[in-house]
Write a structure and sequence with these properties.
Strand content: 25-35%
Radius of gyration: 12 Å
Helix content: under 10%
Strand order of the largest sheet: 1-4-2-3
Order of helices and strands: EEEE
Number of strands: 4
C-alpha cells in the first residue's frame, strides 16, 4: 500500500529477553537494578546481569 503509515510499537511496549525487538529505540530494564540500551528492530532482546528480564521501550531511535 503506497502512502500507508508504518505503525510503530507504542512507547511503553514490553518484551522479554530472547524475544525479537519490535521497534528500534532505547529500551530500559523493567525492574531493579535497571539499565538502558539502544536495540535495533529484529535483534533479540538481551539478558541483563546474567538474567532474563523484561525490557520497556522508552524512546524511538
Amino acid at each position: 500500500m503506497y502512502g500507508a503509515a508504518v505503525k510503530k510499537a507504542p512507547i511503553g511496549t514490553r518484551v522479554h529477553t530472547g524475544d525479537a525487538c519490535p521497534e528500534s529505540g532505547v529500551w530500559k530494564v523493567d525492574g531493579y537494578p535497571t539499565t538502558t540500551a539502544p536495540i535495533a528492530k529484529h535483534n533479540r532482546m538481551p539478558p541483563y546481569g546474567g538474567k532474563a528480564v523484561v525490557w520497556a521501550l522508552i524512546q524511538y531511535a
